[in-house]
Structure formats: C-alpha cells, structure tokens
Amino acid sequence: MLKYIDDYTVKARVAPFFLALLPALFVLYLWAPKAYEIKIGIGTAILSITISLISAQVGRNSGKRKEVELWKSWGGAPTTRLLRHSNIEFNSLQRTRNHKKLQLMIPDIKIPTFEEEQNNPKLADETYEACVKYLISKTRDADKYPLIYKENVNYGFLRNLWGLKNFGISISILSIILSCLYIGINWFKALYISPESIIVLLLCVVALLSWIFWIKPDKVRIAAEAYAERLLECCETIE
After folding, report:
1. What pLDDT, in 10s, does the model give residues 51-107?
2. Phi/psi zone of residue 191: left (φ > 0), alpha (ψ -120 to 50 degrees), beta?
3. Does the keyword Transmembrane apply (predicted)?
C-alpha cells in the first residue's frame, strides 16, 4: 500500500483534500476532544494509510475533472499552446528551437509547419500532445529534473485545490455553523465562551474566505504555465 503514497501523492493529492477537511477537524476538536486521544497501533496505521489513499484518489479525480474545463477556457493545455506557431505568449525563437529538438528526438513524428498548423489545427495539437507525452515520459526522475518535478507538484496541488473548491467551501460553512452552535450552547448553559472555540470559529472563517477569494483559476494557470515552460526547457538537455 505504501508504494502508492509517494512524495507527489502526498503533496499534490492528499494535502489538498486534508486542507479541505481541516475546518471539520478543528470543529471535531471542540465537540469531541477525546477523539484525538488515539493510541498509535497497527490498526491506526492501516486506517491512516487507507484514508490517505482515498483522499489521494478524491483529490486527483476532482482536479482532473476540472482540468479539462480549465484547459478549454485557456485555449488548450499550456504545453500544447506553447508549442503552437500561432502562440504569441512564448518566445518564437525558442519555440522554433524546441520544434527542431523535438523533431530530432522523435523522428517518427513530423512537427507541423505554420501553414500545416493553420490548415489542420486539430492534427497539429495532437502532434504537440504526443511530443509532450514523450517529454513527460523522459523526465519522471525527480532527482535528475528537480525543477520540472517541483513545478509539477505545485501545479497538481493548485489544480486539485481548485477541483475541491465547492467541497472545501461546503465543509467550511458547515464548520462555521457547528462552531457557532457550540459557542451558543456553552453560552446558554454556562454564560461562558472558551477561547479555543473563538479561535476555531475564526480559523473556519479564514478557511472559507481562502476558498472563495484565493482558490481561483488564474492561480492554477500561473502554476500550469510555469510547469509547461520547465518541461519544454528539457528539450535542451534530453539526449
């Protein structure tokens, strides 16, 4: 089971899901503080691993579903867009150099000319996508390509956060309601509001505001384009 929980899985898939659940964990501390007094044993370890695997899958699936929508709104996947002749966001000289390098690395794939891309953009994009898949397959070694790995993790993390946005907002709202309920009950029973309950409520509010105002497509796009640029840079180093 542990082989499925690698560094990328933890940072890009598990972490977003647990961030979404964090307000609920804060509230759980208020309502059931003894729930945190769990003895560590084999059963607990297995449960933790199982939860991590499930959260990794949920985080990935949520992000992947949203990814298609994001790419469509951006005009295509960042790597594909950067390889297009028609793209004006990327240095044209570097793009030409990348095309030449890719043609040498993958001789059985013909990189389209500007005219060919204009005449058949769908085929051109499919060609660029095939090139990108080739580059990805050659740069999986995180030790050899640390910058690519770092940007890939960052993109995966933000993409999956975006995919979990509605879930995160729902959890935060529910946690705020439960926090207020806890405060209200304690005030009604003992005319007392504990400092920790106020802290938990504030943390839940901060979480809600973060999901609403910080988790946005533009942040995912910045990370995606940074990853795309780092990936294409490897055209210079792959033999």
Report:
1. 555 666 776 778 888 999 999 999 999 999 999 999 988 888 999 999 999 999 999
2. left
3. yes
Helix 146-163 and helix 42-74: axis angle, to 10°?
90
Our measurement of the distance from residue 37's CA atom to the centroid of its chain's CA atoms, rounded to an integer in Å, reads: 32
Give CA–CA dist 101/116, Å, rounded: 19
What are the distances in angstroms from CA 13 to CA 7, 19, 66, 103, 156?
10, 10, 14, 34, 7
DSSP state for residue 33 in the 8-state scheme: G
Residues 43, 194 contacting (CB under 8 angstroms): no
Q: What is the pLDDT of residues 144-189, one digit of tens each?
A: 999 999 999 999 999 999 999 999 999 999 999 999 999 999 888 8
Strand intervals (E) in 138-182: none
Say which residues have a Cβ less than 8 Å from residue 50's Cβ, sequence separation at least 6.
1
Cβ neighbours around 43 below 10 Å, total: 10
**Quick one: which H or E segment has residue 107?**
none
Q: Which residues of 84-165 form beta strands (DSSP E)?
A: none
Helix (H) or strand (E) holding 85: none
Q: Do residues 77 and 131 make contact, with C-beta atoms less than 8 angstroms apart? A: no
